[in-house]
Specification:
single chain; 333 residues; mainly alpha; Rossmann fold; Tyrosyl-Transfer RNA Synthetase; 3-stranded parallel sheet; two-stranded parallel sheet; 13 helices
Length: 333
């Protein structure tokens, strides 16, 4: 708690251009916590380097991700918006938590298995211990809730285990956080292979709709989306492509699956795909316009980063000092 408020933390990696998966599964929901919670939203650049990044791209995307946070409705007056590497306590606590995280636990993480298969030439220790850094991100702020897509649920559960283990040895150190997974949009799938999650680092650009894609590109990508040999718009087992498109349509319109089935009864997939593309483009247009304004003022983005980092560092330091004291590290005054 900070004052009377519970605490919310989440982050996004600047590891690629952000997708509608990142938007619907995470960022769009962040603003809903801003009134009731004290919110910390971080651009997690240290996580991004677990996979090789081009330095110029990483730098540019860090600004872009912060601008997108704000364009998606996160007011820097109401939320602490900052960059992970600007608050050294994240890396410091991560080292400590590495010593309270088991090799077997990390080996079971699905994301590690997926990413080490995709980047077989670079299975580095950071990729393996990524969840300990994520636990540090969350636990530093005595976080109560972590809004994430379902792919991150396993990491938040590991974070809970680490916090409980640490608290057993050193009572009352960390708040044990809860993951908050959205009902709709928790796992948006690739448009090219709807059995796979839509990921910003996917090499096939047609698999992904980016938040910043223009209207024509969005509509073209949805037109090309892989579906099935039926022509009926209905939510059912074995119809992964249509299920995914219906989920995206539901997220943007608030309609139920039954309402969508009724709306497109008697229509072919062509009409449906066009409608999905249009609602997506309509919803993203104001975000894109605001994003362009924000990105044009780099000095302001830097000022926001600085302010956010100072505020985050204040709370992070408090937890880190408490942990260091409990562990027996000598504290100099
Ligand atoms: N396809 C998705 N559907 C719903 N939610 C998603 N998220 C990611 N993809 C989807 C959620 O977005 C938040 C930020 O994710 P991240 O940047 O921390 O990393 P990630 O989960 O590994 O996302 P990507 O897009 O797949 O990135 P890369 O390709 O770099 O690994 C998280 O809350 C995540 O759940």
């Amino acid at each position: 708690m900070i004052g009377e408020q519970k605490i919310c933390f989440s982050g996004v990696q600047p590891s690629g251009n952000l997708t509608i998966g990142n938007y619907l599964g995470a960022i769009r929901n962040f603003a809903t916590f801003s009134e009731a919670y004290k919110c910390f939203y971080c651009v997690v650049d240290e996580h991004a380097i677990t996979v090789r990044q081009n330095p110029a791209d990483l730098r540019r995307r860090t600004y872009e991700t912060l601008a997108l946070y704000m364009a998606c409705g996160l007011d820097p007056e109401k939320n602490t918006l900052y960059v992970q590497s600007h608050v050294p306590a994240h890396a410091e606590l991560a080292w400590i938590l590495n010593c309270y995280t088991m090799f077997g636990e990390l080996s079971r993480m699905t994301q590690f298995k997926d990413k080490s298969a995709r980047h077989a030439d670079n299975v580095n220790a950071g990729l393996f211990t990524y969840p300990a850094l994520m636990a540090a991100d969350i636990l530093l702020y005595q976080t109560d809730v972590v809004p994430v897509g379902i792919d991150q649920k396993q990491h938040v559960e590991l974070c809970r285990n680490i916090a409980e283990r640490f608290n057993q040895i050193f009572p009352d150190t960390f708040t044990v956080p809860e993951p908050i997974i959205p009902q709709s949009g928790k796992k948006i799938m690739s448009l090219a292979d709807p059995t796979k999650k839509m990921s910003k680092s996917d090499e096939n650009p047609n698999a992904i709709v980016y938040i910043l894609d223009d209207r024509d590109t969005i509509i073209r990508k949805f037109r090309r989306a892989v579906t099935d040999s039926e022509t009926v718009v209905r939510f059912a087992d074995g119809k992964d492509g249509i299920n995914n498109l219906m989920t995206i349509y539901a997220c943007f319109t608030g309609k139920t699956m039954e309402e969508i089935e009724r709306e497109f009864a008697g229509h072919g997939y062509g009409d449906f795909k066009l409608a999905v593309g249009e609602v997506c483009a309509d919803a993203l247009a104001p975000v894109q316009a605001r994003y362009r304004e924000l990105l044009a003022d780099k000095a302001d983005l830097e000022a926001q980063m600085k302010r956010g980092a100072e505020e985050a560092a204040y709370y992070a330091r408090k937890t880190l000092s408490k942990v260091q004291r409990k562990l027996g590290f000598v504290q100099l005054r």
